[in-house]
Task: inverse folding
């Protein structure tokens, strides 16, 4: 449980900053929101999180494109069924690919683009009511740590953006940021993300 909770959150944190550093206007937009809500205080508190609407959309979009565990907990069919063109007999083990669902062009416009604004006026959420977006799974086998993970991830991202500006190392451009994934139960960046923090006075 401890490894599952830390690995997935760490992966999501890295992917969030990877996408933001590759999209400077979006980075500025979420920084503006965080710093406006923080209003000069020492840090962003848990009570501030409900006011950070754009940050929440950034986290959702990151989880849509980079679910930390893209293959959900296996299920077993209880009866014969048909999914699309496939006949699946009873007692068959089925593995659901959350990443494929999250980038399905049937449900998502420009599915491979990082566009947090798509969630600003959308009721689609990851709590199991919208089957086109399942980074935490759904039902009895959904992630039991979902609420804690989301709160922790939002607090970390918010405070990193509140206290620091972030830049790529000297001589590196946005085009140099490698997006290749490392295969595993939890999907990390294959090449570690390296950013330079600039502490705000």
Result:
């Amino acid at each position: 449980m401890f490894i599952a909770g830390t690995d997935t959150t760490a992966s999501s944190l890295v992917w969030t900053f990877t996408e933001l550093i590759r999209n400077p206007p979006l980075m500025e937009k979420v920084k503006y929101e965080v710093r406006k809500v923080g209003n000069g205080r020492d840090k962003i508190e848990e009570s501030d999180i409900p006011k950070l609407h754009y940050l929440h959309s950034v986290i959702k979009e990151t989880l849509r494109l980079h679910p930390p565990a893209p293959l959900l907990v296996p299920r077993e069919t209880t009866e014969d069924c048909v999914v699309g063109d496939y006949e699946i007999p009873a007692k068959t083990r089925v593995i659901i690919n959350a990443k494929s669902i999250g980038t399905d062009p049937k449900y998502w416009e420009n599915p491979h683009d990082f566009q947090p604004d798509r969630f600003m006026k959308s009721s689609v959420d990851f709590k199991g009511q919208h089957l086109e977006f399942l980074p935490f799974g759904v039902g009895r086998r959904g992630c039991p740590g979902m609420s804690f993970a989301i709160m922790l991830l939002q607090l970390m991202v918010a405070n990193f953006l509140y206290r620091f500006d972030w830049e790529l190392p000297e001589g590196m451009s946005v085009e140099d940021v490698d997006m290749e994934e490392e295969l595993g139960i939890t999907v990390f960046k294959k090449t570690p993300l390296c950013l330079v923090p600039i502490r705000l006075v």
Notes: The domain at 2-68+99-199 is CATH 1.10.630.10 (Cytochrome p450).
